[in-house]
């Protein structure tokens, strides 16, 4: 029996989720919600650029999508600038008895003190009311800094530090709100964008630091430590969605550090460029335009680089695909999970079951 799935939002991520669901014989696409009225009434296959119709019509009417009675919603809506609205969406789905896999808000990846206890309790109550589960994940924050590094630590005899890096060129990352407003690329270098406000990095990447700590059985010092270094552009340049003038912000390197008894034990680091030649002294990807790197110091010393690229070469396109597929492939496990919030530590092994040779 197939699992009935709806996709919520069909932007850069959602269109890949539609394609992933369509390719999986164990999943059935039964609804698509869109916020853009220009997409209302269009076939999901058109929105996903599949070159064919799927017979599922996108709608701006929330109730009509829910009336299709999906077992699970793949929530791909942008959440960076609409946290409370997204939170209400997710709680409402749970109360209605619909399971959810979501790319955000990323703060929901793992319970943490950034949100009040009442908000976590409300998720649990909603899950019990509807007998439904919520799993927030993706690639980063997500698989690249929870399951991936934790699996590698299973080979360790002694662990001194786990460092997880994303090293990427964001010049082809087509998310104007994230690039321009959240990161502040193209903004004056002395303007502190939302992501660089104190506590924001710990809100976004702290959950995966805390999840790794839980997986390793250690208690972190509070608060988590944030380190940020931003660099200006040396000349005028453009990305796919943001123009960057000379002297405005063009590159950033940050760390979110989990200390244990005063020692840095779990570190999430990002090296984000908007041109491959920027900041030559910063860590560079293993190949191409980007990679995820796991460095475990201890006994033995281990480094693993994970690279990806789309079928036609672009790593930002493949970044959207792997984010979407981490959610889509987790749907059956989340539907079968206990009610309430389900973290990566709660799920069984998630694989690409059903999509080999499709």
Automatic annotation (TrEMBL):
Superkingdom, natural source: Bacteria
UniProt keywords, alphabetically: NADP, Oxidoreductase
Pfam families given in the database record: DAP_DH_C, DapB_N
Phylogenetic lineage: Bacteria, Bacillati, Actinomycetota, Actinomycetes, Propionibacteriales
Domain 2,4-diaminopentanoate dehydrogenase C-terminal: 148-350
Domain Dihydrodipicolinate reductase N-terminal: 10-74
The protein, known as: Diacylglycerol kinase
Annotated SUPFAM superfamilies: NAD(P)-binding Rossmann-fold domains
InterPro entries: DAP_DH_C, DapB_N, NAD(P)-bd_dom_sf
């Amino acid at each position: 029996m197939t699992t009935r799935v709806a996709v919520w939002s069909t932007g850069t991520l959602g269109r890949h989720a539609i394609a992933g669901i369509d390719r999986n014989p164990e999943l059935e696409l039964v609804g698509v919600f869109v916020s853009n009225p220009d997409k209302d009434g269009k076939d999901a296959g058109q929105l996903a650029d599949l070159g064919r119709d799927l017979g599922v019509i996108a709608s701006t009417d929330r109730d009509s999508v829910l009336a299709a009675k999906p077992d699970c919603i793949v929530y791909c809506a942008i959440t960076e600038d609409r946290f409370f609205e997204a939170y209400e969406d997710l709680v409402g789905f749970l109360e209605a008895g619909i399971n959810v896999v979501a790319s955000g808000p990323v703060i929901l990846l793992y319970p943490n003190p950034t949100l009040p206890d009442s908000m976590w309790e409300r998720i649990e109550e909603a899950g019990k009311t509807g007998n439904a589960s919520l799993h927030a994940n993706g690639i980063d924050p997500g698989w690249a800094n929870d399951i991936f590094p934790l699996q590698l630590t299973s080979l360790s005899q002694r662990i001194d530090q786990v460092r997880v890096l994303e090293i990427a060129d964001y010049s082809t990352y087509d998310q104007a709100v994230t690039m321009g407003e959240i990161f502040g690329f193209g903004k004056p270098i002395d303007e502190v964008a939302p992501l660089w406000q104190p506590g924001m990095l710990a809100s976004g990447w702290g959950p995966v630091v805390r999840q790794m700590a839980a997986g390793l059985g250690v208690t972190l010092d509070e608060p988590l430590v944030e380190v940020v270094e931003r660099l200006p552009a040396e000349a005028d340049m453009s990305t796919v969605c943001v123009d960057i003038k000379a002297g405005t912000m063009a590159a950033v390197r940050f760390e979110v550090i989990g200390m244990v008894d005063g020692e840095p034990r779990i570190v999430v680091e990002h090296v984000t460029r908007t041109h491959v030649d920027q900041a030559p002294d910063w860590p560079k990807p293993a190949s191409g335009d980007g990679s995820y790197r796991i460095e475990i110091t201890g006994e033995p010393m281990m480094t693993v680089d994970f690279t990806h690229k789309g079928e036609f070469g672009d790593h930002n396109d493949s970044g959207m695909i792997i984010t979407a597929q981490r959610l889509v492939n987790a749907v059956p496990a989340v539907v079968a999970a206990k009610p309430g919030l389900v973290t990566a530590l709660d799920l069984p092994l998630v694989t690409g079951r059903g999509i080999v040779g499709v």
